[in-house]
Design goal:
The protein has helices at 33-37, 44-65, 85-102, 111-117, and strands at residues 2-7, 13-19, 23-30, 75-81, 106-110, 124-125, 136-137, 148-152, 157-163, 168-175, 184-188. It is α+β, with helices and mostly antiparallel strands and 189 residues long. The two termini are 22 Å apart.
Amino acid sequence: MIVLGIESSCDDTAAAVVVDGREMLSNVTTSQAELHARYGGIVPELASRSHIQQIVPVVRAALAEADLTLREIDAISVTSGPGLAGSLIVGLNMAKGLAAASGKPLIGVNHLQGHAYAAWLHEPVRSRLCSPRPLLPLLPRNHVDSRCCASSSPAGTRTSRYSSPTASSSVSAGPATMPPGRLSTRRRG
């Protein structure tokens, strides 16, 4: 499956084309660091306005770098949260528009889970003769023993997540004020 992914949750606008959830054919990102530097932090309104200016060129560049058209894409994924509301809306509307116009499925992706899943992505190794086809991936295609442990603290909670391409589990300590000894464990399929 070939997926076009769109990310605009904060101050960077990004798009990538990924094959079978592992191999990146393209990865295009624009940074707003200079725009926000003079303010000492991210200004949400400026971020969303910059996304509006950057989203179309970034998506076009990602498709061009992958040497694919929208017709050759199987699905469109987009960051659906968490993030800055105005920034998320830009990416979501771009993805929804592309999905509606092309008839492709739309997949919402949690921003934090996307960071953890990125550990399984790799770029194809290309020949020294600049062959346009990937010749050898960095990891074998059947390599599924990759593991990742991520920790996040959204809204004052403590959460650690262990994930592999085939399973995921989460250990939550609940609110940050809860004693660490009171852990609850959830396990997903």
